[in-house]
Write a structure and sequence with these properties.
The complex is a heterodimer of chains A (111) and B (121).
Chain A (H helix, E strand, L loop, with lengths): L8 E4 L5 E6 L11 E6 L6 E4 L13 E6 L2 E6 L8 E9 L4 E4 L3 E5 L1
Parallel strand pairs in A: 1-9
Antiparallel strand pairs in A: 2-6, 3-4, 3-7, 5-6, 7-8, 7-9
Chain B lengths: L2 E4 L3 E3 L5 E8 L7 E7 L5 E8 L4 E4 L8 E5 L4 E6 L8 E8 L15 E5 L2
Parallel strand pairs in B: 2-10
Antiparallel strand pairs in B: 1-3, 3-8, 4-5, 4-9, 5-6, 7-8, 9-10
Classes of the chains: A mainly beta (111), B mainly beta (121).
């Protein structure tokens, strides 16, 4: 059971918008710690998609956006493309664990 | 270009020891935290711990404290993850990654290519 909870799977048709939630608690997201998002394509290492809740590294399309509110965060993907099919993970710091934690991951399927 | 290059795949027997490496380049290795992440077959990412190479300040996840040792040699820009007695349950892909910020605010970027560790009798 992960400290950060994500839906195991989400799906959408090409061109649609999907969101992936990341629910934490008062010891991590709710305490104000930043949330970061990673994309892991099949057979590859993860790469950062969003850092500091809503910042995109250079090279990441603006179809990807992040937000944080209360004890939760969300990753939104608009204009869904086949190449977006991957696993997505959120990460935040947890003060009770004195370290970072990952969400359980969400598998995105493009129909 | 900031890059992390990990050592190759390993096949070991239960009870054996192992030390895998992660060499950084293209940035100030000593003054950036480096972390290790485990991914068991078909499973999600698990934060194992981090180290600050300049003074070897090390933080472990409670789940991995006492199970592995994280170290670094700043003279050769290399971080290590070590086991003294492997178990079959240590079979996983292990990634190293840089934290370009503090432990409480930092994200992992970039990541190494991963090192597959297989423990089987």
């Amino acid at each position: 059971q992960s400290v950060l909870t994500q839906p195991p799977s989400v799906s959408g048709a090409p061109g649609q918008r999907v969101t992936i939630s990341c629910t934490g608690s008062s010891s991590n997201i709710g305490a104000g710690y930043d949330v970061h998002w990673y994309q892991q394509l099949p057979g590859t290492a993860p790469k950062v998609l969003i850092y500091g809740n809503r910042n995109r590294p250079s090279g990441v399309p603006d179809r990807f956006s992040g937000s944080r509110s209360g004890t939760s965060a969300s990753l939104a993907i608009t204009g869904l493309q086949a190449e977006d099919e991957a696993d997505y993970y959120c990460q935040s710091y947890d003060r009770s664990l004195s370290g970072s934690v990952f969400g359980g991951g969400t598998k995105l399927t493009v129909l | 270009e900031v890059q992390l290059v990990q050592s190759g795949a390993e096949v070991k027997k239960p009870g054996e020891s192992l030390k895998i490496s992660c060499k950084g380049s293209g940035y100030s290795f000593s003054t950036n935290w480096i972390g290790w992440v485990r991914q068991m077959p078909g499973k999600g990412l698990e934060w194992m711990g981090i180290i600050y190479p300049d003074d070897s300040d090390t933080r472990y996840s409670p789940s991995f404290q006492g199970q592995v040792t994280i170290s670094a040699d700043k003279s050769i820009s290399t971080a290590y993850l070590e086991w003294s007695s492997l178990k079959a349950s240590d079979t996983a892909m292990y990634y190293c990654a840089r934290l370009p910020a503090t432990p409480a605010t930092g994200w992992f970027d970039p990541w190494g290519q991963g090192a597959l560790v297989t423990v089987s009798s």
